[in-house]
Amino acid sequence: MGVMERMFREAMGLAAKEEAGAERLPLEALVPSPQPRKRFENLEALAESIREKGVLQPLLVRPLGDGRYAIVAGERRYRAARMAGLSEVPVRVVDLSEKEARLLALVENLQREDLNPYEETVGVLALLSEDLGRPVEEVVALLHRMRDEARGKVPHNVMGSPEARRVEEVFRALGRMTWESFVQNRLPLLNLPEDLRGALEEGAIPYTAALELKKVKDDPLRKALLEEVKAGLSLRELKARVRGHGRSPYLEALRRERAPKPWHREVGERLLRLDLEALPPERRARIEELVAELKELLG
């Protein structure tokens, strides 16, 4: 039993009772439940394995009371089994409330090895939200107040509250990072620009690079740096670029290209390109009048 499941069963005090052995249920009797997992990668490979060996790990389901069962954990196996053409799968039936089922689904989601940092951040917040019974926005605000109080900035008087203690218990059970590290290094990922979040979710860049790139407010420059990171630019080199040192020639050229030209140069260049003969008579006469006035003013 993993640390997350132990946390779920012991620290959260759930009373789920699993049957002694697995039973088999038809796929038509199983109902996928709304759950945090959005990506189901390599389903084809899993389906092929299931065709050869069957479903080795039973799905965890709870009865809905009408002959159907909601999937609590194992939706990826359920989808792959359908792809493999199976008609039934092994399951373990547990008696859980809807809240307990949501918590267990969150716990099972966080046990995945292919979670990227952004997904893990969202998953941890969802777990805290469900456990505390508060919206994610309030959980984020609570974490920020805890950090401020721990740093002595603001006397929020929340560190001794039951909610703060529960937050600490959850992070201890997770065993991945402290809540302080989560606030400092993971919460900023929620406000990433779309291009950075997409690259992070794809696994194209580490979250440390995403946080560094987030400091670049100029969109074209950030995108150019993002491509360099994807191509292998180290975090040390990236930080130097962001600080303004050691910029690549490409970025310097891009910066010069985007720099606004002085108005008189822009007007001069447009006059050089202007075809007076092609203009309507009234407009041509007006331009010649203004140019003559400008020449007089310039002496």
TrEMBL record:
Coiled coil: none annotated. The keyword DNA-binding applies. Signal peptide: none annotated. The keyword DNA-binding applies. GO terms for cellular component: chromosome. Keywords: DNA-binding. This is ParB family protein.
